[in-house]
Each structure stands twice: as structure tokens, then as C-alpha cells.
Amino acid sequence: MTRQEQKEARKAALYANFQSLDTLLGRKTFVLEANYLHNQYGNPVPVTSILNFIKVDNPKVVLQTGNNFNQGYNGVGGVTAEGDLQNWKITRNLKHLSYTISFSVTTNIGAYDVFILVGADNTATATITGLTRGSLTYQGNIVAIYNSVVYKGQKTI
Questions:
Q1: Residue 46, preceding bond cis, omega within 30 degrees?
Q2: Which residue(s) pair with 36 in the sheet?
Q3: pTM for the full model?
Q4: Are 45 and 140 in contact (CB under 8 A)?
Q5: So what's the pLDDT on residue 157?
Q6: Could you please report the per-residue DSSP string of 28-73?
Q7: Mean pLDDT per segment of 10 residues, for the chain of length 157 residues?
Q8: pLDDT tens, 45-87?
Q9: Where are the domains of the chain?
Q10: Could you tell me the CA-to-CA distances from 138 to 105, 109, 124, 147 in Å, in that order?
Q11: Rounded distance between C-alpha atoms, residue 48 and residue 6, angstroms
Q12: For 104, which of 43, 76, 87, 148 could close a Cys bridge (C-beta 3.0–4.6 Å)?
């Protein structure tokens, strides 16, 4: 294949994936499995995607952090917050083949706003902010719930 043909084939594949993401995100049933969490300075820290995720399963949302080394509040070395999905808003960008999603969730440990940017290649970046100062950023991939391999810890009290 020539370079131009390869470029067109890649663009067609991205557009097809963009269409399948439309269904997945529209149903509000997906998981962002994080490969990195960004600290308060914006530095990426590698994490285990099985324990660090944002799960949206309409009408429920699970926000979790964890690690393989400590027990933590949730039994997997971090925090698990569960709540109901509120204020869902999705915007499609056909020019850049991307999505912007925002929603709120009130959990047992606080209220949070979540803002997610999703690319046609299933990469995603989510920023979670709460009522207090600071934020947490997840960077990873969007997958369907039935393809996800996450492990949910105990709900943090």
C-alpha cells in the first residue's frame, strides 16, 4: 500500500471505531481502565488498570483507586466511591473524531464532577474534581463493561 492508501485506511478504521464508541457511550455502559494517574503537579504515575478505573453502568457510577501493595480503605489499597449518575452531557466532535463527556456523581464519601475526553482510538483522559481543592486525572482506555477486567474493592465508608 502507498502512504496515501495507508492514511485513508487508518482514517476509515478510526471512523468505524468512532461509530461503535457512539453506541457504547450513548448507552452509558463503559469502563475507563486507567494506566496512569496524574498527581497534583500533572506528573503521570503508572498504575494497575484492574484496580484504577471509572465504571459507568447507568444509573450507577464507581470511582476507584488502588494498588497491589497496601490494604487501604477498600481492601485494594485505595478508595472506592459509588453513587448515582447525574447531569450527563455528551458532545460529539466529528472533525476530530472525539467525545467530551461530563457528569456528576454523589457518593458515600462526597460529590464529584467528572470530565472525560475520549478519542476514536479508545484512549481517554478523565478529570475528577470535588468540593475540596485539587483533582485526580485518570489516563487510559475506554472498554465495554463485558470486556472489562476490573476488580471492585469494598465501598469506602
A1: no
A2: 46, 139
A3: 0.91
A4: no
A5: 62
A6: TEEEEEEEEEE-TTS-EEE--TTTSEEEEETTEEEEEE--SS--TT
A7: 88 90 92 92 91 94 87 80 95 94 93 96 94 90 93 75
A8: 999 999 999 999 999 999 999 887 777 777 787 889 999 999 9
A9: 3-147
A10: 16, 19, 8, 19
A11: 34
A12: 87
